[in-house]
Amino acid sequence: MNLSKTKTIFEDLQKKLNLELTLLEEVSQPYILFETKDLLKICQYIYTSPTYYFDLLNCITGIDNGVENGKIDIIYHFTSIPFGVSLILKTQIDRTLDDSSRIDSVSALWKTADWHEREIFDFFGVKFNTHPDLRRILLPADWEGHPMRKDYEELEKYHGIKVKY
């Protein structure tokens, strides 16, 4: 997405929703950094706004920043098909596996979020509030741990089968 469109959306979100946001311009793909508590407010606005109508949630990505940093990035990529515009939003949550690592689900707005959020739960252990079916999607239900976390220790065996080769 070009910077001027991201900047316009950034300014509009700040003005209309009165939120603390940060625009990161000095990166290959500009994005808007927001506080996790504001996720649903922002998403509801960009989905229903006749100015933008972000009707497609392309993907949600998780990035573990490591034990030292203590944060997991959650990155949302949106497209407005009618307007041919893309948008990237990013927030950070604690990487603990308790209630501080929870974030709201956007699956009520974009059905594709269902599977993206399940994948992030499966690989990072992030729990999504109000998700309709939060369970593992790629790993078996009894798999131990979350393999995309930087401190994950690979299993030697799973049900008697050697995993590590």
Compute the number of helices.
3
- Amino- and carboxy-terminal Cα gap: 42 Å
Q: How large, in whole angstroms, is the Cα Rg?
A: 17 Å
The CATH superfamily is NADH:ubiquinone oxidoreductase Nqo5 subunit
Secondary structure elements and their pairing?
Blueprint: H1 3-17, E1 21-24, E2 31-34, H2 39-48, E3 56-64, E4 71-80, E5 85-94, E6 102-104, H3 113-124, E7 127-129, E8 157-158, E9 161-162
Parallel strand pairs: 2-5, 6-7
Antiparallel strand pairs: 1-2, 3-4, 4-5, 8-9
Overview of this protein structure:
- With 165 residues, the chain is α/β, with parallel strands linked by helices.
- It has one domain (3-145): NADH:ubiquinone oxidoreductase Nqo5 subunit (Beta Polymerase, domain 2), CATH 3.30.460.
- The protein is 22% helix and 28% strand.
- The protein is built from 3 helices and 9 strands, in the order αββαββββαβββ.
- Strand 8 and strand 9 form a beta hairpin.
- The chain is elongated.
- The termini are far apart.
Which features characterize this protein?
single chain; 165 residues; alpha/beta; Beta Polymerase, domain 2; 22% helix
Brief digest:
With 165 residues, the protein is an alpha/beta fold.
